[in-house]
């Protein structure tokens, strides 16, 4: 029996925080699409791989506040901290809506804003 979608996302996120982008990508469909609302859209696993190389200079740190699964969708709400190109840590609040297909992450719709409140 395969893993449920929520567990797949948890395993994929754990891989990213360990700096293992290839393991993360193994949980994605080859034609995965990532939509960063108001910013950019990535189409295909190779585009996501190239994004991760640039964006994850160091592995990001996640704090998931809520993980909600329903049907083919998993929604993650939380905070993420990443290093920018100059090496400074930047904190973000996010809401990721993942759509799953055939046991893999097929699409991400990400709402991400810089958290300047702290």
TrEMBL record:
Q: Give residue ranges for domain SnoaL-like.
A: 11-107
Specify the species.
Flavobacterium zepuense
Mention any Pfam family matching this sequence. SnoaL_2
Highest taxon of the source? Bacteria
Q: What is this protein called?
A: Nuclear transport factor 2 family protein
Entries under Gene3D superfamilies matching the protein: 3.10.450.50
Q: Known PANTHER family for this protein?
A: BLR2505 PROTEIN
């Amino acid at each position: 029996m395969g893993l449920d979608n929520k567990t797949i996302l948890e395993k994929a996120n754990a891989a990213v925080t360990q700096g293992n982008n290839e393991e993360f990508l193994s949980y994605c469909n080859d034609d995965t699409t990532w939509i960063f609302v108001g910013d950019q859209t990535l189409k295909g696993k190779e585009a996501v791989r190239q994004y991760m190389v640039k964006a994850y200079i160091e592995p990001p740190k996640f704090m998931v506040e809520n993980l909600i699964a329903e049907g083919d969708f998993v929604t993650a709400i939380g905070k993420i901290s990443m290093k920018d190109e100059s090496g400074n840590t930047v904190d973000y609040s996010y809401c990721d809506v993942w759509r799953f297909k055939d046991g893999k992450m097929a699409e991400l719709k990400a709402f991400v804003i810089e958290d300047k409140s702290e």
